[in-house]
Amino acid sequence: MTKHPKCILLAALTGYLLLSSSLWASDLTPSSTAKAAPHQAVMLPKYQTNQKVSLQMEKGKVILVDFWASWCGPCRESFPWMTNIQAKYKGQGLKVIAINLDQEKQQALDFLKEFKPGFTVLFDTQAQLPEDFGVIGMPTSFLLDRQGKIRATHVGFHQNNINEYEAAIAELLAEKGE
Fold first, then answer.
1. What pairs with residue 141 in β-bridges?
2. Looking at residue 58, what is its pLDDT?
3. Stretch 25-53: mean pLDDT, rounded?
4. Stretch 23-33: mean pLDDT
5. Does the predicted TM-score (pTM) go above 0.90?
6. Which residues are catalytic?
C-alpha cells in the first residue's frame, strides 16, 4: 500500500470517528495487562532542533504521544491544550511528544508557525510508527507510563473531555515507578 492511500484512509476514519460516539478510554489500563508501546527505539527528527530522538530516550517519564497532521481540524484545538498540560505537569515528569504524519514537511512547518508548540514535535514523514501503534484517526493520542506501556488511548480531541484527559495524566504521574 502506498503512503497516499493511507492518508485517505486516515482522513475517512477520522471523519467517521468524529461523528461516532467517543472512543476515549477514561479508565487507565492496569500496568499488569498494558502492552509496551511499539518501536520505542525508532529515531525521528525533532522540529525544534532537527536532532533525532526516540520515545525510548524519555523512558522514566509519563509520555503523551500524539499523532497529528496539518490538515486535521481537531489538532488545531489540541495544540494549545497540550502546550498548557506540558507546562503544568513537566515538573512531575510529563513529556508531550507530538508526531507529525504529513508527507509534505512544509505543510507541518506552516502549521507549527501558527500554533507554536510548547512541547516536543517529531516528524515521521515515512509513517514508521502509526500502523503498529494502531492510529486510526487524527489526532490519536497514547498515554505511556514510566515503563513505556500504553495505559490509555483517545481518538480525536474533544474539549468536553479535557478533564478526563488530564485526570488520566495526573493518575499516571501519581503512580510510583518500578
1. 66, 154
2. 94
3. 90
4. 76
5. no
6. 72, 75
